[in-house]
Every structure is written in structure tokens, then in C-alpha cells.
Amino acid sequence: MSIKFDISVIKFINLFEKITRASVKDVIVKENKMTFIVNEGNLGKAVGKGGVNVKKLENMFKKRIKIVEFKNDVCEFIRNLLLPLKISNIYKEDNLVKIKAEGMKIKSILIGRDKRNLKELRDTVKRYFQYDVEIE
Q1: How far apart are CA 110 and CA 60, in angstroms?
Q2: Which residues of the chain carry a pLDDT beneath 50?
Q3: Domain count along the chain
């Protein structure tokens, strides 16, 4: 499955790579947040010492920045997406990935108001893998 970028997204990726010197796999742009997905092993370079690159990018884009390291294993990728939340277990069952959250508070954060966070998580996972996501 190929991902198509428009001109503005390509500009964001080029600026991100120029500042951080880390290679970007994808960027997801929302109203007030940008999620950069970097290739494996580039997370430290992308964040920078003390988060200096993240702060610089937040000031430039005037949006919150989240940087996620891509993994070829869907469970590890989801765990990276959900950091810093405490997830007790993530496992695959057929074409479904089940996430077991520690406590109702974390479960409610995962689902979000009107299931917004769950929908974003499902959309992001489906960009790379043929799995659906369910929260227990």
C-alpha cells in the first residue's frame, strides 16, 4: 500500500529532515498536532538532546509535535505510538490487534471523546499494516 503526499506535507518532511538530520517515513497532520514517523534507529536523532529539535519544530509549525519510531512488527509500532501510556499487553489475533490497558483512566484516554483517539490509532495502523485495533 503506497502513501501519497501533497505539496504541504512534502515541505513539512523536508524541513523536518533538514533540522533533525533524521529520515522520515511519514507525517500525519491534524489541526493542532503533527505526528512524524521516523525510520527505525532515527528517534534519538529526531528528538535531539533534551528535546531541542522538538521544541524548535513546535515553534516553527505552531503545533504540538509527536515523533514515533516505525517498527516492522505491528505490536511494537502500536506500543511506540501510544507512549508514554502504560499498556500492559498488546497481542495479535488473526487480523486484529488487541490492546489491554492498565486501568479505566488509560482505557478512556486510548478511546478518547467520541472515540476520536481510537479512530486516529486505527487509521495510522492501517496506513502500514492490514490489522484492525481493539481495546480491551
Answers
A1: 28
A2: none
A3: 2
